[in-house]
Amino acid sequence: MEEREYGIATFDESDVISRFQPTAKAGFYKWDDDAQWHSEFSNPRICEQYLAMIQTLYDRGIKTEDLNEVSGNVFLPDVDGDLHAFPDLYSSSFISHGFPTEELPPIIDRKLAPHPILKKKHWRLPNVTLSKFLDEHELNESSDTYRRRIWLWVNKESNNISTLDLRRLAGVKIWPDTRGNLFSLAELCHPRQKILRDAVAKHINIPSRAVLRLPKIKSAKRGILFIRSYPSEEEF
What we know:
By secondary structure, the chain is mainly alpha-helical.
């Protein structure tokens, strides 16, 4: 057992808290180097154990003010496995369904997002909703590759996307036609009669089968999610 100058060393909650703040406090059990704590805190399962200890101390009513300050000094991984200072992280429910993250701020790892400690005032992360993301980004200016990834997400998770958010996405050029090109829903046209569809096929953007199969698109009778069935004058 290791000894301090004044006696026998013990490893207790205060040492856990100290190590959880690698750049803020120099406790008795110091990290050997930055690479060591980077490796440790990049592992969400290990981070869960640290957070569980903090939660236990909250539940016991111990050092509440000190625990509140800890949140400003810890580092946790985001959904891509990159490490960030906790105050720089965000939460997001729609990210848990695989939304491409390139143009998003760092979102806390999916395994850590449900942790009860994140409901506490000093540990609460700002939330990024899909609606807010769409407000702040002009996705039609994003790369074709990124918009295709959004389409793959929509195609897979359409039942988990609210009708309101899907209407917002209707104006984004993520919807593939039969040639594989991306358009907004308003730019797509699907004549119901095959003879008409075949006649104007070279002049319109016919939606792919995957688009037509989406339940909220298929059931739309009017409005922004409805795919028009008559070509415009320009298309004729």
